[in-house]
Design goal:
There is one protein chain. The protein has one domain. Helix content is 28%, strand content 19%. It is built from 4 helices and 6 strands.
Length: 143
């Protein structure tokens, strides 16, 4: 199966090499994918099938291949549940190869979820701010 970034305008993601940061502006949650999870994300965004990604990534991990595959599948299920990605059966894959870990073999992929900035991420920068502008939230926004 192939995937792509959610088509929702409320979802954004950026790859910083060894980390991917994604945000869902409706629920106010942001996410971090490090190491093997960032590599899997980059493969998914390149339109590469998950099975191919796992086959290329598992040898770069210190985990058992079956455990790595199961963790990669759980990661994708979580990304789908969090509405960060969506199926893309028509995706055209581009060239992608995983990059070996700079600090040695990768561990199991995982998604970190952060809720500490919910209020700011959900803030409407046009309507919910004071005259001073963003990020100064208006205590009683007009809705």
């Amino acid at each position: 199966m192939q995937y792509r970034l959610s088509s929702s305008p409320n979802v954004s993601a950026r790859s910083f090499g060894d980390e991917v940061v994604a945000a869902h502006f409706v629920n106010g949650i942001y996410y971090s994918l490090l190491g093997s999870a960032a590599q899997i994300w980059d493969g998914l965004m390149a339109g590469v099938a998950l099975e191919t990604i796992v086959a290329r990534m598992a040898p770069l991990s210190d985990a058992d291949a079956a455990d790595f595959a199961a963790a990669a599948n759980r990661l994708v299920e979580t990304l789908l549940a969090e509405q960060l990605i969506e199926p893309a059966p028509d995706a055209q894959a581009t060239a992608w190869q995983p990059v070996p870990g700079a600090d040695g073999p990768y561990g199991l992929p995982a998604l970190e979820r952060f809720t500490d900035m919910e209020d700011l991420l959900q803030l409407d920068p046009v309507h919910d701010v004071e005259e001073m502008g963003w990020p100064h939230a208006n205590p009683a926004p007009a809705r």
